Every structure is written in C-alpha cells, then in structure tokens.
C-alpha cells in the first residue's frame, strides 16, 4: 500500500515538474522578447520657413546607456501634422532623421514626430513647432533670460507674457533665443526645456533658437538669417550686454530689460525697467 502511494506521489511529482518546465521555457522567451524593446529618447527641433517653401524638420533618436547616449540608426520616423502622417524618413548612423514638409499658409503649426512600427524599439514621440512666416513680416528676437526674474528661480518677470503677447498678437513674429554652454547632444534637451517653460507660463508661440555661449554666436546667426532673406529681424529685447551688442554692431535696435547695473548697458542700447516699458522703447 505504501509502495503504491509513493509511486502515485512520484508520478504526480513528475507531471507537475513537467508542467513547471513547460511553463519555464514558455515564460523565458516571453520575458526575453519584452526585454528586446530598446528604451530610447526622441527629440525634434523647431523649424522656420515661409508659405509654399519646404520646411526641414530634424529629429534625433538616441539610445541611453549607463554612461553615454548613442544615436540609433536604421529606424523609421514619421512626421504628423493635425494627426496625419505627412512625411517619413529613416535615421542615419547618428540617429538623425530629416523630414520635409511644404506648408501652404503662414502661422504656427504644432507637429509631432514618432517612431514608426518596429519590433526592436519602444514606442516614443516628441513635439515641436513649425513657424511659417512671411519674410516681409516684422520680426523681433527675445532673449529668454530677459523673460525671467533670475536664472535660479526661473520665475517669469511680471507682465512679461502679457506684454509680449500684445507685441506679437498683431505685429511681430517672435524668435526666442537661448544662449547656453552646450555639450555634444545637449541642444535638443535645452530646446525642449525652453519650449516647455514658455508653454507653462503662457508665452506666445514662436521659433526657438538655441545658441552656444560666446560673443560671436548670436551675431553669426543674425548674419545668416539676413543672408537667407529674414531681413525684417531688426530689433532684439535682451538681458545681457552681449545680446544687445550683437544687434547694435549691425546697426539694429536693442532694448535691455530689466534695467542693467550701471555701466552694463552699451551706449546706444535702450533700457526698460520692466516689461510694461518695453513697447515704449520700440
């Protein structure tokens, strides 16, 4: 009797062991398949063009490792406007994809880039703005630092959003300038942080331009934009002496806000104590 019971127990153990083995080998490939999805970051830069002129939208796909970020090539990228796919591209060896879109009318167009169907990479997407401006329309550049009380708190200056809204509602197109020390691959992070900050504090939509720090970067960009036909960019509102000087050296107007310390304002720069005074100086 005891031997029969033990035999039954043994057979039952074998059956259960077989089931566990089956479950184990079925589960492991499932876990491995899920682990094959690569975690990535997708970023996209704002773009600027004119009606009926092709816009170039640049997106970057990076895989984040323990110590470094590396571009992920060979991945499908889709450009969506108003929820519809309007262009596709494949990332190169650096993880960069360039997409083209032809806008018909002026305005600010929200756009989304996303990863296309792939079995290797987790789904991801990123947002940006396409500024479509008439080249003859007045433009102004605004240093984002001039919109903040200070760099540490990152609180907006009193009335800055409201006053800038008045300037852009019926007249100016605004180019936001961010100047910062940039390391390799940092551009997209700075661009995204600036866009989110402007959105969070209800500033008008504009084109964001990220430049490396240094006295020549802004001046070089102003020259490039004028050479490309954006000649109506004639005034800048900024906080730093270097920003104002870049405009003044090209015989363009510059307004500094808030009022800088004595001796910090270039001789021909206009000075506004607060944003309510900026319109009076333009």
Structure explained in plain terms:
The chain is an alpha/beta fold and 282 residues long. It folds into two domains: 40-132, Immunoglobulins (Immunoglobulin-like, Sandwich), CATH 2.60.40; 139-281, Rossmann fold (3-Layer(aba) Sandwich). It has helices at residues 2-35, 160-170, 187-200, 217-227, 241-248; strands at residues 40-44, 47-49, 55-64, 69-71, 76-81, 84-90, 96-101, 107-115, 125-132, 139-143, 173-180, 207-212, 233-238, 253-256, 270-271. Strands 12-11-10-13-14-15 form a six-stranded parallel sheet, sandwiched between helices. Strands 2-9-8-5-6 form a five-stranded mixed sheet, with no helix packed on it. Strands 1, 3, 4 and 7 form a four-stranded antiparallel sheet that branches. The longest helix is centred in the N-terminal third of the chain and has 34 residues, at 2-35.
């Amino acid at each position: 009797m005891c031997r029969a019971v033990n035999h039954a127990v043994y057979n039952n153990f074998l059956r259960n062991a077989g089931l566990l083995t089956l479950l184990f080998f079925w589960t492991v490939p499932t876990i491995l398949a899920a682990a094959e999805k690569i975690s990535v970051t997708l970023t996209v830069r704002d773009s600027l063009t004119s009606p009926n002129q092709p816009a170039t939208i640049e997106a970057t796909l990076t895989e984040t490792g323990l110590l470094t970020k590396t571009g992920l090539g060979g991945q499908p990228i889709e450009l969506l406007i108003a929820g519809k796919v309007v262009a596709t591209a494949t990332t190169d060896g650096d993880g960069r994809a360039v997409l083209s879109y032809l806008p018909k009318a002026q305005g600010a167009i929200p756009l989304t880039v996303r990863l296309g169907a792939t079995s290797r990479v987790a789904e991801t997407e990123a947002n940006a703005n396409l500024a479509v401006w008439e080249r003859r329309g007045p433009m102004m550049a605004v240093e984002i630092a001039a919109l903040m009380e200070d760099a540490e708190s990152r609180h907006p200056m009193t009335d800055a959003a409201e006053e800038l809204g008045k300037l852009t509602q019926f007249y100016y197109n605004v180019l936001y300038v961010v100047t910062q020390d940039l390391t390799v691959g940092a551009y997209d992070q700075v661009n995204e942080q600036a866009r989110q900050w402007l959105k969070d504090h209800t500033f008008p939509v504009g084109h964001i331009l990220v430049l490396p720090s240094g006295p020549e970067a802004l001046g070089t960009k102003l020259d490039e934009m004028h050479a490309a036909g954006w000649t109506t960019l004639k005034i800048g509102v900024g906080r730093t002496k270097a920003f104002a000087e870049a405009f003044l050296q090209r015989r363009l107007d510059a307004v500094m806000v808030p009022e800088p310390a004595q001796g910090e304002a270039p001789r021909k720069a206009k000075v506004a104590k607060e944003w309510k005074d900026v319109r009076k100086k333009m």
